Amino acid sequence: MDHTDEEIVTLLMADGRATFSEIGDAVGLSAPAAKRRVDRLLERGVLKGFTAVIDPRALGWTTEAYVEVFCQGTVSPADLKRSLQHVPEVVSAATVSGAADAVLHLLARDNQHLERAIERVRDEPNVDHTESVIVLSRLFDRARA
Q1: Is 5 left (phi over 0), alpha (psi -120 to 50) or beta?
Q2: Which string of DSSP letters, residue by residue, matches 132-143?
Q3: Domain check: are 120 and 89 in the same one?
Q4: Nearest to 116 by CA among 96, 132, 98, 128
Q5: N or C end: fewer C-beta atoms under 10 angstroms in the chain?
Q6: What is the arithmetic mean of pLDDT over 111-138?
Q7: Tens-digit pLDDT profile for residues 70-88
Q8: What CATH number is attached to the domain comprising 10?
Q9: 31-59: per-residue pLDDT in tens?
Q10: C-alpha to C-alpha distance for 100 and 110, rounded to whole angstroms
């Protein structure tokens, strides 16, 4: 990956809908050359694809919680990921060290919506139980800057 590829990736991270013409103009390539570069980045797996990123807060999902997930037996991270991906309120998930197997970050409209989402997490066959904390106020978040 050269400097031009890095510039293209940076541009696409900022605007995944940028046209090949816009990308080419920004990095000094023609639109067809920019397309070839993007295609190569996709083939090599540098770019995994393009998707719409939804802002849950724009949907009114302002109730926030962190949920520790405790699994029954040994569950692989891949299996846990598959079982949790279908819960749209889970905005991020990570396996962790310590007593819990994973920590989830959930966003919902209100406490009732949050409770239903946590129930769906608990309904997964590999989940034994959960422990939750509701965020009262966000002090700062460098990732959302």
Answers
A1: alpha
A2: EEE-S-----GG
A3: yes
A4: 132
A5: C
A6: 96
A7: 999 999 999 999 999 999 9
A8: 1.10.10.10
A9: 999 999 999 999 999 999 887 777 877 88
A10: 25
